Amino acid sequence: MPSKQPVSGASPSAAAVIPVPSTIKDSPAVERALNRSKLYLLISWSLLYPEDEEFLDYLRCGEFVEDGRAALDTLQAMLDGAGGERAVQKIHALKKQFDLAETLIASECANWQLSDLQSEHRRVFSNVITLDCPPYETLFGNDHVFAQSHVMGDISGFYKAFGVELSKDIHERLDHLSVEFEFMHFLAYKESYSRCHDGAEKTQIVVEAQKKFVKNHIGRWVPLFCRMLSKKADSGLFRLVADMTADWMEFETAFLGVAPQPYTETDYRPATFNSPEGQTYECGAQDQGNELSLLLNEVGAQSFMDGKDKDKEKDEKGPVGTA
User: Fold this and answer.
1) Phi, psi of 33, rounded to the nearest 5 degrees
2) How many whole angstroms from its chain centre is CA 179?
3) Which CATH number characterizes residue 292's domain?
4) Domains in the chain: how many in total?
5) For 301-315, what is each residue's pLDDT tens digit?
């Protein structure tokens, strides 16, 4: 399984074995969470710029396809009606995507050097933020910096609520698709652990967090991004990744029972995001009526935000955010 993680303070590899009580170790819900976690991690890693040969080796040795198929097989066997017929259809579609990936890897990627994978990544994503398929949420549906700051603050608040932060080894923004998918990998993994050890109340908090993050974030912008990526890549590895990610998002919305309002091409009005000097993004989570403020209260993370307010009263240095 992949070892590089865009966020730190999260879980170990999704392939790790969770010690569980014998009465629930075979629970379909636990298996569903674990294998959803695996698939989020596979897609997350495939979108990062390859700094070394680790991901290329993972492709060439066949484990990328093997792990994906194994996760889908288990997920299908354990669905138990969750997500309805739509979820079943998307699993079949994803299996076909991994079949295509196996063929592509055998015919092309097997002979690649690291420089070939890096060149393909640069061809599609460029060395700078490309506006024809940017893998950053705040470039979708947010045509001015204040709207972007609000979205960035909401994302940051989710990460803070569950004690994760950007890894120092990953040179990406917190709204990068790979980072957001890594966060969903962590939440699904945390759900599997919680079902074994923490009881129904804490488990429900983690499940609701997944639903909110899909509904309010990745479920909104990722479908349009996948269409743009498919068009830009045209063929090859990242065309497959685009189609695979699109099918996965459709599975997730069906499985979780959420109905995001996805962006369309007419909503795509990107503005270059520049962090205003001296600002951070935690404050976006404090907006009254914000979905995240409810989540923070549920998980007990609101105390972190309250502490920031008290510090501000003691030492007035101006606002830390305008989201």
Assistant:
1) -65, -45
2) 6
3) 1.10.3480.10
4) 1
5) 433 334 434 444 444
